[in-house]
Amino acid sequence: MYKLGAVNAINLDGGKSSTMYYNGNTINETEGRKIPTAILVE
Hints:
By secondary structure, this protein is low in regular secondary structure. The chain has strands at 21-22, 25-26. The protein has one domain (1-42). It contains no helices and two strands. Strand 1 and strand 2 (25-26) form a beta hairpin. The protein starts with 20 loop residues before the first strand and ends in a 16-residue tail after the last strand.
């Protein structure tokens, strides 16, 4: 990421509890797990 010019980066695992929520809609389906933590981007 540094070579691409990133100053900050976050590595996300993308496991079964990962959910993408955009514009009021859930983009992908999870396996019924609750999501305890969120990363918001405006």
